[in-house]
Structures are given as C-alpha cells and as structure tokens.
Amino acid sequence: MSRQVSLRPWQRDALDAFTRRRSDSFLAVACPGAGKTTFALAACRQFLGGEPRPVVVVVPTQHLKHQWTEAAARFGIHLDPEWTERSGLVADMHGIVTTYAQVAMSAGALAVIVRNGVVVLDEIHHAADERSWGDGVKLAFAPAACRLLLSGTPFRSDDSPIPFVGYSFGDYGDAIADYEYGYGEALADGGVVRPVFFPRFDGHMEWRGADGEEHSATFNDEVTHDKWGGRLRTALSIDGEWLPTVVMRAHERLMEIRKTHVEAGGLIIATDQEHARGIVKLLKRFHRVDARLALSDDPKASQVIAQFADSIEPWIVAVRMISEGVDIPRLRVGVYATTTVTPMFFRQAVGRIARWTPGQRSQRAYLFLPDDPRLRVHALGIAQSRRHSIELRIRRREAEEGEFDEYLGAERSEEQQLSLFAALSSTVVDAGGSSSDGVDPTEDVVLEPGDLRSFTIDLPPPPPLPGRVGDLEGVGPVRSRHGEKKRLRDRNASLVADLARVAGLGHRAINGELNRLAGIVRIDDATVPQLARRATEASKWLDDPASFVVGRAPAPVSRADRRATPVIDLQDDRDAGHPGASGAVEPVVVDATDVSSRLAALRRTLGTSAP
Question: Which distant-in-sequence residues (6+ apart) come within 8 Å of 530 by Cβ?
C-alpha cells in the first residue's frame, strides 16, 4: 500500500497542528463536507507510526460504522464494525468502530482495549446526548494515549459540557478548538463545499392551538413565542397548500439541475415518521416519483441510504437518518420540512447538500425553507458568509475566517398537545419574491481544472497485526477486511448448506470439521486467510465426496496431506436433541457411492455435470 496521501490545504495544516499537540486530546472543528474523515485517518496513521497500537472509532449511528470501516480500509487500517463486548477483538483487525450508545454499555471493556492506543470520537457533541453516553465516554477513553475529537457543530442546545473538550469558562462558554475550518474558508478555498442558497417561503397559516383557540398569521407577522411552533407546524402540514407548493418548487429546481448534473438528488427532512410517509405519497401523487424513505426504526434504513447514494433516483425522505455524517455527495436540493429549529440541526442539514463533488464546474445547492424567523436567522448567517467568500475568490485574495452567525435566542420548537392542536389551512404567500435569497448570476463558485490545490505527504506505514496469518492475495487497498470477511462467511455458509444436502449430515457436524481443518474454534474469530482456507476445504469435500469417511478418527489428520480422509464426530448432533443422544456414539460409515449419487443429482438439478 502507498505511504503517500493527497490532502487539501486545511487537512495538511490540521495534521501539522495535530502533530504539534501538547495534550492527549485534540478537537478539530470543520464544516460538514470538508473532509474530516480523511484528516482523522491520516492523523491516526501519523500517531501509530507503524506500531501495532489499538484504534477505536466512535460514531453516532449504525450506518456510519460501515462508512468509517470502508474509509479506514483505504488507509490500510482495518476496523471491525460488528464488535461487541462478548466477541472481543479478532487477530486480523487493527481495531473497532462502535457507537456512543454501545460505549455507555461497554465502557469497561473499551477502557482495556484502547489503552496505549488512539480513539477517534466523531461528532463528539453526541457524547452528551444522554448523561450515560457522556459518562461512558469519559470512563472508556480516559486511558487512551490519544483522543481525536471531530465535530462540525461543537456546541449543544442544552449547554451540557462535552467530554474532553475545553471551554472558555470552565464547563461553560465557547468550546476551544485546536483547529477550526469554517464554511466561509472552505468556500473561499474552492473544491471543498458548494455555495448553498436558501429560497424562503412566507405563508398564511390558520390553526387551533393547544388551548383550543384559533389563530392565523404569516411568517412575517409578530406573534408571541408560544405561537411560533403552531405556525410552523401548520405550514408543514401535508393537508395544507404550503408544503405541496414548496415541494413542487424544489422538484422543479432539481429537474433543472439534472439537465446538466444527471445524477443530482434531493433530500426532504420531515418532522416525524408519519409526516415522512405523507411526503413520499405527495411526491408520488403530484410528481410521479417513487421516493426512497429512510426511517430510524427500519432495520434496512442503512441499506436504503446506501442504495440511494449509488443510484440516480431523484428524491429521498428522512426524519433524522440523514441529518448528520451520512455521505451522499450527489444531493443538490433540500427541503427543510421539520419543526426542529436549533442551529446545530440546521447546519447539519445544510451540510448534507454542501459537499463538493469532482466533475462539475458550477455546483450551486439549494435548501428550501419556511420563512420562520429562527430559520431565517440561521440562513442569513450562512448566506452572509457565502457572499463574503465568493467576493474574496473574485478578488483573488486569501480567504479570511468566515464564521457561522449564531442565533442565541433560538429555541426548540414547542411541544404541542396534539389532542387539541389542529392545522386548519396553509398557503404560500408571495412565493416568487421571498424565494430568491438574493441570487445573483455572478454569485457562484466556478472551478477550472487548475484551481484545486492539494498536497501529497508521506505517512508512516500501516501497523502490523499481531497474530495475523497473512494477507489474502488479491485484496485491494480499497476493500475493507470486514467486507472481505463477510463475503467469505457467506461463501462458507453456502458451501456448508450444499454439503448438508449432499452428504445428509447436520450443519453442526460439518462446521465442526471445517473449523478443525482451518484451525479455528469459532467462525466469528476467523481471520481472512482462515476463512479462505475453510472455504477451500469445503470445496474439496464437495468436489470429491468419495474420499471422506464419517466417524471417529483413529488418528489425527496429517497437515501435510489435506486430501487425507477427514472424520466427523456426530456426538454434537446427537447432543443437540437427535435420536440416541443419551447413548454411546458408534462410528457411522457413509456409503461413498450413495454420497456420489446425491452429489450427481444435485449437480443435475443445478445444470452442471457430476465429477
């Protein structure tokens, strides 16, 4: 594997700062889409220095575990995303990927694993989502030699302190980052993030409040804070006219973009699961689009997201599944149809459509919004940073720090007593004027081939793996070891099923003999070479059944002669409830002719010839 990696300017600068760190903890804050994962993995390689130290990555969601596994493999770092406290570490992995929820339950075991190693805490602000999560993170990773903290939004709406993060006033004030890279800087650099525009739509809403009283207002009307939630919820109602109108405008914009960027996609962030299902029906009814639906309680949600990311389908609808960290670079249009109005969630939503992708000179992105005063403040802060950065690019001056404006007065949307609350009607008001966001034809980031800057640096080699038998030939650097092991496990399971049908033996007996031949106790603990060897032995058995006798072995099978007659003890099958489990086990000899006949019949069924 190459020891060289190409980094963006900010990633190189952040890596330099990481190398010079004076603390065990390092907080890197970078806007969504900037490439925090690449920086973090380069930093891990730098820290490891070719030594076999453990690596632990902690992420907010199950989907991100597999995303990190694949990314780490490209750096020669192999991580197990299916680790549990009970399973332990396998020999051919450098470490594990786990979630904050798992850390809370397995803090003691992780404290042992990470000792003298490095832990990457992705989106570290999640460590305080629940008190048990924060306590678990502190207990589990205090023994780590290095803690690399990543975040695009290093603050929490409830002001809870984040573990291992320093603040300007004790546990309060602003988080102190060791390196920070904002949206404005990224936009000025070019080739990192897209310019995001915010078409905002006013409306006239009528609703019955939690007190049973009827109200009506536009987003420009001054109303008391207790009515903000009802007004916004009414605008987003599936049964009104506001949301269908805004979705129509967003769909038209996406179809226009797809004329030059054919795989461009759109994301609609819904309020809850029922709302999300209603939006899917809306897209089908009015636009004849079969939108993807990603819900957190769907066990196939990660698969839905991955399939959408690799497709050219136009729309995906989600509640929170795609709010943070999930990488779908082709997203160019978003609809903010949720009542969650915190600055952190808003910036995360912007980040889903802001990632720059190679191949397009111009990549404007659009997030369609209710003109709610809280969302308006968030959008104007980012828009101001966008305009400033584009002006800097036009003048070819070095980018100055562009910060997000923070609206401290923003609150979470009010909880509604749904038994009394009712959205009565909603219509869009002056859609043409309020949806412009001041877009100027010259306000764009256009990149020519020579505009992108990168730096190639040398990294230490990936660390060796203690106890590893050897690498499987032909495994490329972009294939994760976890993915290869899954493929080989599936291959082994298929071969065992074929052997069970052909030889008339139980799965347990066959698995036991194959484990013995591969030199393993449990298949979950097997390395890639051991799984490959196990599959080879199963294939030999299937191809030459006449050479195998089933019964107790009078002597162990010689390693020098892999085609010598393996013998299987049926005791396990009988202990599992088969007839005769309580009696002595006599050797059972299977007629080789009968086995060959069964194999021939099976292959005729499959359309192949018998040996």
Answer: 469, 518, 519, 520
- Domains along the chain with CATH numbers: 4-181 (3.40.50.300), 193-434 (3.40.50.300), 481-606 (no CATH)
| Burial class of residue 489, CB neighbours in 10 A (0-12, 13-18, 19+) | middle
Output the CA–CA distances (angstroms, integers) from residue 33 to 146, 310, 606, in the order listed.
24, 18, 49
- pTM, full prediction: 0.66
Q: Give tens-digit pLDDT for 314-371.
A: 999 998 766 555 678 899 999 999 999 988 888 888 888 988 887 777 789 999 999 9
Give Cα separations from 581 to 554, 574, 575, 584, 590 (angstroms): 22, 4, 5, 8, 19
Q: How far apart are CA 318 and CA 325, in angstroms?
A: 14
Rounded to an integer, what is the distance from CA 253 to the centroid of its chain?
Answer: 27
- List of residues 6+ apart from 274 with CB closer than 8 A: none
pLDDT tens track for 273-287: 999 999 999 999 999
Are 425 and 206 in contact by the 8 Å Cβ rule? The answer is yes
The distance of Cα 36 from the centroid of its chain, to the nearest Å, equals: 13
The torsion region of residue 461 among left (phi > 0), alpha (psi -120 to 50) and beta comes to: beta
- Do 29 and 154 contact (CB within 8 A), yes or no? yes
Residue 265, helix vs strand vs coil: strand
Q: How far is CA 504 from CA 267, 268, 482, 501, 596, in A?
A: 52, 53, 32, 6, 12
Residues 236 and 471: their CA atoms lie apart, in Å, by 54
How many residues are present in the chain? 611
pLDDT in tens, 22-67: 899 999 999 887 889 999 999 999 999 888 899 999 998 887 888 8
C-alpha distances in angstroms, 371 versus 292, 472, 583?
27, 56, 78
Question: If we measure between CA atoms, which residue out of 179, 181, 185, 151 comes closest to residue 18?
Answer: 179
Beta strands (DSSP E) in 162-252 are 167-169, 172-175, 179-181, 196-197, 200-208, 214-218
